[in-house]
């Protein structure tokens, strides 16, 4: 609304409709500021240490809102320019100043409110830590139950605060770390209950004490990590140095290599060599692992050797190209770049296959939980020798699973999944010894119900983590195949043989290295256009708008086609590409229909341009559809068809880059002309009314399962203490 006012163009003729619209915008801004400031003042009254700063910011915001309302009070003036009353028409700089003051004071209120939220989380953490210290020192069941009841309530409060904070985080890496810490707290809360009860029942048992101490230590680490994320700091000012994965290393290396197309001098050959050395050092995690198959190990070593040779060839051509920029040399450089990238893609696929096949085999092998079942049985029997035998087997299993997590981290594909792998590795490292100490306690006290229950809880945590690993493995495979990740992939891609019976007779064809070299420039242009389109769609206030939705869909499909030119992504064959081009053209036709609908809402003088652009789009999409459906026999004809499809897709995307800002401008113009104080639509009112209830499932998910934990505490009996 503020942008609408600032961008308002002065015109000699001002209709009543324009004057009323300006006044409504001014009133809307003032009302919104009033509501915002009321909340800010309420927060200030509850937090005395920031009350003065918050109150000053709220007063500034309210004053700016009132100034904007006064300057836009123009509807009642027949000739605002000749009137002594100061308005937006006579003093536009006044509106700009008021808007700046408003935005700065609103930002100040938000920053202060954020500081208060952080303080609430720290205060809540401190309460939890203080109560944990009390729980560690209790010596009777009765005292433990009273303190644990308080601890449960404090954990519920901490869960709510950190859950809201996790949802507010924009950084996906921090979000993943927060989720991992909260998952630890969720599982450890139940472990703390049973481990503490076991220690109270068997105060002289060393294994029970070790078991309990491990839980308390892990909870403290998780609480500390939450505070690090919330305050964006680390103890002693140290920086977090996460190890680089093979996947991210290859991605960065390829970006540098491909950058040589644009600039031959932006990095040194030493830098490129060092980057490859680091990647190949990381592959030693696979080749040195006892769990990597002989076949995978040989392939990785072979591809590592090939990568060194390809880099030598690339550097040789690159150095020649720097000295003499002949056309032949630039073509040789393009081929060398493609060969280097292809080799790195093959290496990435090989380490991915090695890690995921190992994970699939291990998860399948351990799905029956035979070792855990044996520990429970031998523990109840009090058979210390058998328990010792099975704890050795569990330790072996733990080492296998930890190694699996380390290898999966290298191929996880995204930072959040890397963090999930690290969290899983930590969980297996810690939970394994805790199961062993719980099993030893049960073997020493085979008739103890609480010791048996404690072992059950730790075994459940292990089984739960194994189950989570299956989901994680699926996500890692999805990222690798391009089904999710950094760039959204359009999911309406038809599959050959499934959607079209005629495709069964067509042999799938892939582009070879030479063909990829020819089409690389066109693919790069397509990539840049997808970035431009994404940038334009992000400028729209209404992300649910039909034009935005179609634009985003087309951008995503064009990105898949760009990946095809590099030999990556979901489109594996030329037939996949042609199908994607058909769907892309259909989506473009739907966008043209949305443009026609918009033309009915805009003013008469804007309509012809919009209709002309819509007709252009329809014509281009028809041409693309015809090209994609045309038959092509032989390698040369197929490549010509691929080239034509990508060229026509690029042309459509170029038009889309021009269309989106035009539509956005007309949409805003139309909105300003029709006024901004329309009543809220029914669905929005329903959302407001049911806001609290709508959050209930999320709340339930965020409270660490505390309800069941509280029930557990309530049902505690003191039969054993007797």
Automatic annotation (TrEMBL):
<dbReference type="Pfam" id="PF01044">
    <property type="entry name" value="Vinculin"/>
</dbReference>
<comment type="similarity">
    <text>Belongs to the vinculin/alpha-catenin family.</text>
</comment>
<dbReference type="InterPro" id="IPR036723">
    <property type="entry name" value="Alpha-catenin/vinculin-like_sf"/>
</dbReference>
<dbReference type="GO" id="GO:0007155">
    <property type="term" value="P:cell adhesion"/>
</dbReference>
<dbReference type="InterPro" id="IPR006077">
    <property type="entry name" value="Vinculin/catenin"/>
</dbReference>
<protein>
    <recommendedName>
        <fullName>Alpha-catulin</fullName>
    </recommendedName>
</protein>
<dbReference type="InterPro" id="IPR030045">
    <property type="entry name" value="CTNNAL1"/>
</dbReference>
<keyword id="KW-0963">Cytoplasm</keyword>
<dbReference type="InterPro" id="IPR001033">
    <property type="entry name" value="Alpha_catenin"/>
</dbReference>
<dbReference type="GO" id="GO:0051015">
    <property type="term" value="F:actin filament binding"/>
</dbReference>
<dbReference type="GO" id="GO:0005737">
    <property type="term" value="C:cytoplasm"/>
</dbReference>
<dbReference type="GO" id="GO:0007266">
    <property type="term" value="P:Rho protein signal transduction"/>
</dbReference>
<dbReference type="GO" id="GO:0045296">
    <property type="term" value="F:cadherin binding"/>
</dbReference>
């Amino acid at each position: 609304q503020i942008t609408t006012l600032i961008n308002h163009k002065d015109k000699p003729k001002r209709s009543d409709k324009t004057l009323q619209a300006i006044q409504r915008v001014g009133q809307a801004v003032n009302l919104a500021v009033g509501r915002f400031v009321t909340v800010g003042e309420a927060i200030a009254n509850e937090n005395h240490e920031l009350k003065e700063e918050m109150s000053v910011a709220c007063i500034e915001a309210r004053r700016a809102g009132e100034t904007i309302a006064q300057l836009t009070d123009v509807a009642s003036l027949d000739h605002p320019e000749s009137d002594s009353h100061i308005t937006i028409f006579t003093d536009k700089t006044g509106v700009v100043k008021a808007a700046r003051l408003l935005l700065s004071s609103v930002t100040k209120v938000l920053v202060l409110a954020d500081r208060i939220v952080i303080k609430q989380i720290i205060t809540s953490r401190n309460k939890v830590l203080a109560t944990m210290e009390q729980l560690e020192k209790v010596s009777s069941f009765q005292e433990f139950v009273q303190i644990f009841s308080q601890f449960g309530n404090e954990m519920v409060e901490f869960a709510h605060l950190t859950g809201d904070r996790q949802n507010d985080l924009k950084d996906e890496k921090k979000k993943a770390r927060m989720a991992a810490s909260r998952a630890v707290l969720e599982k450890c809360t139940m472990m703390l209950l049973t481990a503490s009860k076991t220690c109270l029942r068997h105060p002289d048992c060393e294994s029970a004490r070790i078991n309990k101490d491990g839980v308390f230590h892990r909870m403290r680490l998780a609480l500390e990590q939450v505070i690090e994320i919330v305050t964006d700091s680390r103890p002693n000012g140290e920086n977090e140095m996460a190890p680089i994965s093979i996947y991210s290393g290859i991605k960065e290396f390829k970006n540098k290599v491909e950058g040589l197309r644009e600039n031959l001098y932006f990095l040194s050959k030493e830098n490129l060599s060092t980057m490859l050395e680091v990647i190949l050092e990381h592959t030693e995690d696979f080749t040195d692992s006892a769990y990597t198959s002989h076949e995978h190990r040989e392939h990785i070593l072979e591809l590592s050797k090939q990568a060194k040779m390809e880099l030598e060839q690339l550097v040789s051509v690159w150095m020649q190209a720097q000295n003499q920029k002949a056309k032949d040399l630039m073509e040789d450089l393009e081929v060398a770049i493609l060969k280097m990238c292809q080799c790195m893609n093959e290496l990435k696929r090989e380490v991915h296959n090695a890690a995921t096949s190992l994970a699939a085999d291990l998860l399948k092998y351990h799905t029956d939980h035979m070792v855990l079942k044996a520990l429970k049985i031998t523990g109840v029997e009090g058979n210390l020798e058998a328990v010792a035998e099975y704890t050795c087997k569990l330790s072996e299993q733990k080492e296998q699973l930890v190694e699996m997590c380390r290898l999966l981290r290298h191929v996880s594909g995204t930072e959040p999944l890397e963090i999930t792998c690290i969290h899983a590795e930590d969980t297996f490292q810690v939970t394994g010894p805790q199961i062993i100490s719980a099993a030893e306690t049960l073997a020493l006290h085979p008739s103890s119900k609480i010791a048996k229950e404690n072992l059950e809880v730790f075994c459940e945590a292990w089984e739960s983590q194994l189950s989570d690993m299956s989901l994680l493995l699926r996500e890692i495979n999805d990222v690798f195949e391009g089904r999710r990740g950094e760039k959204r992939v359009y999911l309406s891609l038809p599959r050959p043989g499934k959607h079209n019976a005629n495709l069964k007779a067509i042999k799938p064809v892939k582009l070879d290295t030479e063909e990829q070299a020819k089409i690389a420039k066109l693919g790069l242009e397509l990539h840049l256009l997808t970035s431009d389109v994404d940038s334009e769609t992000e400028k729209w206030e209404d992300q649910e708008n039909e034009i935005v939705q179609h634009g985003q869909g087309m951008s995503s499909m064009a990105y898949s086609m760009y990946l095809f030119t590099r030999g990556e992504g979901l489109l594996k064959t030329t037939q996949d590409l042609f199908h994607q081009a058909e769907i892309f053209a259909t989506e473009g036709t739907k966008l043209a229909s949305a443009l026609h609908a918009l033309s009915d809402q805009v003013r008469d003088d804007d309509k012809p341009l919009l209709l002309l652009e819509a007709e252009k789009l329809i014509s281009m999409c028809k041409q693309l559809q015809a090209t994609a459906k045309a038959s092509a026999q032989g390698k040369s004809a197929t490549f010509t068809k691929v080239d034509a499809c990508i060229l026509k897709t690029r042309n459509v995307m170029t038009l889309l880059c021009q269309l989106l800002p035009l539509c956005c401008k007309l949409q805003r113009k139309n909105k300003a002309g029709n006024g901004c104080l329309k009543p809220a639509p029914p669905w929005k009112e329903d959302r407001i009314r049911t806001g609290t209830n709508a959050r209930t499932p999320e709340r339930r998910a965020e409270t660490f399962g505390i309800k069941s934990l509280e029930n557990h505490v309530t049902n505690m009996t003191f039969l054993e203490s007797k």
